[in-house]
Amino acid sequence: MKCITVITTTYNRGYCLHQLYESLKKQEYKKFQWLVIDDGSNDNTKELIQGYIDENSIDIEYHYHQNIGMTASRNIGYELAKTELSVIIDSDDWLESNALNNIIDCWEEKKSDNIAGIIALNQKRDESFDEVKLLPDIKQLKFRDLHDIYRYGKDAKLIYRTDIAKKYPYPTFEGERSFPASFKFRAIDEKYDLVTMNKVVCIVDFNQNGQTFDRIKQYKTNPKGYAFYRNEMMRISKNKRFILKQAIHYISSSFFAKDYMFLFKASKKLYVVSVLPLGIMFHLYIRNTKRRSLKFK
């Protein structure tokens, strides 16, 4: 019986999928499935994956649909997953050589009803393990604590119980294709904790054509979703500094969405009122900047 699903959503990444495939073949732990969700690729992705299936080295399930965006594709991936655990590995990343074994060992040792999954390490392609920032030295925490309390400041890898991940799908908005991944993490925080594992699971290779380098474009082209996200983050957070940042973003995204009733919809109206001038100035900056990345999150 398979215990973990590696979910990969992909769009026209036939040129780099081999890295992930090779890393999966090298895993000592074999009770996993690679679930590939093809978001309407028009390159050689389908033929490539079929070739991998024909090799019969690992268990692969491939699903193709018309382009609907990464957020909706991830929802499909979680819905199709049948194993106890699931982990998202992007199509331009790959697994550390003993990643799945480490995940299963950690889970078997620490799992309980109030634990949603594991938070582990990512490692950049061009850095050594000694350069990777370790997680706080505590047994369990919430995702939000990692950033709001411990100021971790790095992306971590989340491995979730599939049954819990299914309960918190990403919202989708007509005409929009992207939504912040951390929505699921912070929503799950409301009821569950995560156990920590200071071992590398994923080697990340930030692609110049990927979403990581197009934060500003995402911000402008997905305003309804981003405004909804910021409003929800204000609602569930108790960290005043975090709420103020979300309020500024909420104002900016609402203007991009042309939703001028945003104040009446705000989950924490006083915070929004208090930063209204800053939110408008930030909106003007985003609207006119030629930068692609966004550091103010």
UniProtKB/TrEMBL annotation:
Residues 5-131 form the Glycosyltransferase 2-like domain. The chain crosses the membrane at residues 270-286. GO terms for molecular function: hexosyltransferase activity. It comes from the Bacteria. Keywords: Membrane, Transferase, Transmembrane, Transmembrane helix. SUPFAM superfamilies: Nucleotide-diphospho-sugar transferases. InterPro entries: Glyco_trans_2-like (IPR001173), Nucleotide-diphossugar_trans (IPR029044). CDD domains: Glyco_tranf_GTA_type (cd00761). Gene3D superfamilies: Spore Coat Polysaccharide Biosynthesis Protein SpsA, Chain A. Pfam families: Glycos_transf_2. This is Beta-glycosyltransferase. It comes from Pseudoalteromonas espejiana.
